[in-house]
Each structure stands twice: as structure tokens, then as C-alpha cells.
Amino acid sequence: MSITTTDIEKVAQLARIRLDPAAVPELTERLGNILKMVDQLQSVDTGNVTPMANPLDATQRLRADEVTETDQRARFQAIAPSTEQGLYLVPRVIE
Amino acid sequence: MHELTIAQQLQGLAQKDYSSEELTLHYLARIERLDARYNSYITVEPERAIDAARAADRARADGSAGALAGIPIAHKDIFCTDGVKTSCGSKMLNNFIAPYDATVVTRLAEAGAVCLGKTNMDEFAMGSSNETSFYGPVLNPWATDSVPGGSSGGSAAAVAAHLCAAATGTDTGGSIRQPAALCGITGLKPTYGRVSRYGMIAFASSLDQGGPMTRTAEDAALLLNAMAGLDARDSTSLDTPVPDYTATLGAGIEGLRIGLPKQYFGAGLDPEIERAVQAAIAELEKLGATVKEIELPHTELAVPCYYVIAPAEASANLSRFDGVRYGYRCEDPKDLFDLYTRTRAEGFGEEVKRRILVGTYALSAGYYDAYYRKAQQVRRLIKQDFVDAFAGVDVIAGPTTPNPAFKLGAISDPVAMYLEDIYTIAVNLAGLPAISLPAGFAAHKPIGLQLIGNYFAEAQLLNIGHRFQQATDWHQRTAAGIE
Q1: Nearest Cα to Cα of residue B209 among B225, B222, B228, B226
Q2: CA distance B281 to B449
Q3: What is the least distance, in Å, from the CA of A46 to any CA of chain B?
Q4: β-strands A87-88, B257-261: how paired?
Q5: What is the C-alpha to C-alpha distance for residues B148 and B151, in angstroms, rounded to an integer?
Q6: CB within 8 Å: B376 and A75
């Protein structure tokens, strides 16, 4: 599977990363090389193999549905780029 | 004082040869005087360190001292430290003052360890050379024209240059063991889930694991005692009893069965490293171990498998860096999309962006089965290789890296860089513990012997490491330039 500059632009949009148009050709080549290396996986017969998500096949531990954390909003918002009245501010979305 | 191991410093503190305040001031003065050569620290915290040292001295006086009371250590800058900048080596978090402590940080502080500061690292732990750090590369204390390895390169260099008694690291594909090998120190990657990941900035959550980077296996045991164990705040941390890792350090290793994977001694391995590793294994045989060749048939699939799984998980984990709640935000965003895309374009470095893009591609519609699902299947085959091998041997031994530390800028092709981790990556995919021990030199630079253990065999790896270090002196060598 080879990757094109159009693929890269689409993926960058999905990943929310703005690309410098001048850098796209080289990026396409580098990503193409990584994907070519990764394509070795396609040669393996994995028909009956269960995908492995956790090395010990452990499952998520559950806990009782109780409040355990305290409200630290003011503390966390102190390091935010922009807040007002307890809300995070971003550029206007709806005019 | 800085030549001493933690075990020796604990004795010195107990005998009142010096106080923790004196020891801490000594390291702070060394960092101030010498670290410009290595760039191993991003942040040094003298006031906090001295306060912690005084508290440790008081605890010693009143009998309430923890197991590591007064020992000056450093944390990789991936571990959140309350009130202290936690950058993860990235411009994205250059202004991030963590509002809480990672569990590893809390536990080491509770044991009385003194935090001197935060060590340099590859950006978001993505790299094998420390060259991707926003704060500039770390230089190898053994050869300052060469890399220290990565991603925990600052921790490895700081320990090797005696700018701290020990440091924490994290290992997603070799990031503790590879820099430990290239800087001539001891580095342990525990079993996945052994050490809490809470407050450890996530790269690839199914692979990331924190561990100790020290001068000796004995010191690694002392640190792991404090670091390991169940944490309610990390749902993947394991509820398996934590032994006293120091209790079995001196046990005999007669009858230990060591497997040597044929695939770890093939083409691509530096001949000097091969000789050094064979000599180290011969040393273990002298101590009573037996050796046999084994097969890990899927070894060459480990790097391709990892470069699907790790970027895929990274692309999800790093989506949180959006310029809204903390960290970098671009100037004058014109709308929300512009805010996201420009913040991320400007805040992340090139390697991080490449991996996010690879991961996003691998997870995108139409490609998920071909990449992510396939890699998770191959991952099980790689794990099964180890399960089969451990049916016949107790530990697996081989080189930690194929090459000694390379020169800064020598590897610019990402794929070539990825292949430097060929012997360490499979261990993360399988979730196994492994240790790198100083075992000689190649081109006058240190190299590592890697021992891979079965699940939860950290005590056994530390025991073998300790016995090896009692019989050899590679771990006592220091670089010529170290004062």
C-alpha cells in the first residue's frame, strides 16, 4: 500500500495538524518508507490468531461508582491558556 | 560522595558520615558546574531539593526515615511533579506546571528520596538518541560527540556523569535499556503493569512502563521496592504481591538456564558487542549457569509491529494536546480548527508529528484491519515466541543494542533509527521485564548485556545482575571526562 500526498493531507486534517505545503513531498516519502517497513506484517498468516490488546490479557479493573476525587477546577484552570468564569475559552465557533 | 552507590550512600547517611543536605548540595553543585557539558537536565529544583533533604535528615534523627531517605535522584521529565515544570521534552508542554504528582514521584518521595530535578528526553519519549528533545540533545558522558541513546537519555547521562545517585526512566520500546547500555549504567524495565503509569505522560499505553536507572542492580532493587505495586489510579497496574527485591540479590545462580536467541546474534550486530556479550555470558556460566541456543522466530516482525501499535496509540493519546486546557496555544487563532491545527503544528516536533500521522493513518477508516488489527495479531505471535522459550529456559540473554552510541546527527532516516531498538522492542510488545547491565566496550563506548525474564521475574533479573556485578567491574567504570 503506497501513500500519496493526498492521503497525507487527509490524514493531517484528521490528526488536526497543519502541514507546510512545501514539506508535504518529503513527509510523504518518509511516511511511505515507514509504511513500507510496516508492510512486512502483511506476509504473516494470522488467520486464527486473536489480536492481543494487553500483554497479560488482563481486563480493566472496575471500581465502585463513588466520588473519590475532589473538585480542583480552579487549580487546573490556573494553567489554561484562557478561561473565564470557570469555562475554557476558544475562538467563537458559531457566529 | 558522588562515586558511591545508593547502597553505600544509605550506609554513609545512617553512620552520619554526611547529612542528606550535604549530599544534596554536593550533587546540586556538580549539576551547576558540569551539566552544561551534557545537557542532561531540563529543570533543576535546588530549593525544593534542599527542603526535601532537610526533611530526610529530620526523619533520620527521629527514627521515621523511609528506605531511601535522603538519596538525591532525578525524574525523567515525563513524570508529573506537582508545582514543577513537566515538559516531556516538548515545546507543547514548555509552559506546563503539573498540578499533581505521578504515583512514581509520590512513592519515591514517601520513601524519602530527594528530587534534584527533571531530566532531558526525546520529545514525548519518541526517539532513540535524545535528538528530538525541544531542549536540545543530551551528550553522552563517554563521548560528547555521541548520543546517549533515548528516550531516557538525560536520566542515563545524569547517572553516568554522577549528577544524581539514580534516576527514573520509562521504556516503551527500549527507552530505559538502550540509553542505559550506551551510557554504561544499569536499567530495568519491569513487567507491564508492575509500576503505575498514573501521572506518567502517555505515549503508547499498552507498552509504556516506568523503571529505575542506576549504577548497580542492587540500587535498581532499592528503587523498584519503592516504585512497584498496585495503584488504584492506574487501571492496568497489577495486583500481584511486590517482593523485597533486595532480599534475593545474593542468591546463587547455579543451575540457571540461559537461552541465547539465534536471532539476537545475527547480521547487523557489531562484532565487538558480540564478543563482549559472549564474554559476559561466559562469566555467568562460571557462576554456575548453563547456556543453550533458542529460537525467537518472529523477531524481525517486532519493529514493524511496534511501528503500527505505538504510533496508533500515540495518535490517540496525543490528541489531548489541543491548546485549550493547558500547554502551548498558537497566537491569534482565527477559528477553532485553526487553533487546533496551528497549535499542534507549532507545538510538536517533526518526529512526533510523523508518528501521529502514521498512527492516524493506521487507525483510519479502511485501514484499521490491515494495520492495527494485524499488528495486534502479530504481537501475540511475538509473545508466544517468548512463552515457548520460557518453557525451556529461565532467562534470555543477548545484546541490548546492535551498535554502540553513534555520533550526533549520524542517523537521519527514521526507519534506520527505529532499527536501533531491534533487540528491545519485542520485550515491550510481550510485556516482559528486562534489564540492561554494563558489559564492556565497543569503539571505547559502553555496551549492554540484556537479560529478559519471565513475567514478574524482576527479582531474578536483579539477582543475576547483582551476581554478575560482584564478579565483574564494568559497572564501576566511569568515563574519562567525569570529575
Answers
A1: B228
A2: 9
A3: 6
A4: unpaired
A5: 9
A6: no
Domain harbouring B420, CATH code: 3.90.1300.10
Looking at the 3D structure of chain B, how many domains does it have?
1
Catalytic residue flag (residue B383): no
Q: Is residue A58 part of a domain?
A: no
Catalytic entry in B76, B118, B189, B445: B76
Phi, psi of B460, deg, nearest 5: -70, -40
Nearest Cα residue in chain A from B353: A17
Q: Find all residues with CB under 8 Å of B476, minimum gap 6, and list them.
A: none
Q: Measured in Å, how far apart are chain A's first and last C-alpha atoms?
A: 42
Q: What share of chain A is helix, strand, coil (3-state, %, to 5)?
A: 40, 5, 55
Cβ-based contacts of B327 with chain A (< 8 Å): 81
Cα–Cα distances in Å, from A10 out to A6, A28, B341, B355, B369? 6, 12, 13, 15, 19
- Report yes or no: B12 and B20 within 8 Å, Cβ to Cβ: no
For A28, the domain range is 5-43
Residue A83, SS3 per DSSP:
strand
Within an 8 Å CB–CB cutoff, is residue B477 touching chain A?
no
Instruction: Measure in Å the smallest separation between the Cα of A32 and chain B Cα atoms.
Output: 9
Would you call B357 and A80 a contact, using CB atoms and an 8 Å cutoff? no
Instruction: Evaluate whether residue A17 is within a structural domain.
Output: yes
Q: Is residue A31 part of a domain?
A: yes
What is the helix, strand, coil percentage profile of chain B, to 5? Answer: 40, 15, 45
Q: Which residue has the cell 540473554?
A: B397
Per-residue pLDDT of chain B (483 residues; tens, 9 = 90+): 999 999 999 999 999 999 999 999 999 999 999 999 999 999 999 999 999 999 999 999 999 999 999 999 999 999 999 999 999 999 999 999 999 999 999 999 999 999 999 999 999 999 999 999 999 999 999 999 999 999 999 999 999 999 999 999 999 999 999 999 999 999 999 999 999 999 999 999 999 999 999 999 999 999 999 999 999 999 999 999 999 999 999 999 999 999 999 999 988 999 999 999 999 999 999 999 999 999 999 999 999 999 999 999 999 999 999 999 999 999 999 999 999 999 999 999 999 999 999 999 999 989 999 999 999 999 999 999 999 999 999 999 999 999 999 999 999 999 999 999 999 999 999 999 999 999 999 999 999 999 999 999 999 999 999 999 999 999 999 998 887
For residue A88, give the amino acid letter: Y
Q: Is A30 helix (H, G, I), strand (E, B) or coil?
A: helix
Q: How many separate domains does chain A show?
A: 1
C-alpha span between B68 and B282 (Å, rounded): 34
Q: Is the Cβ–Cβ distance between B84 and B98 less than 8 Å? A: yes
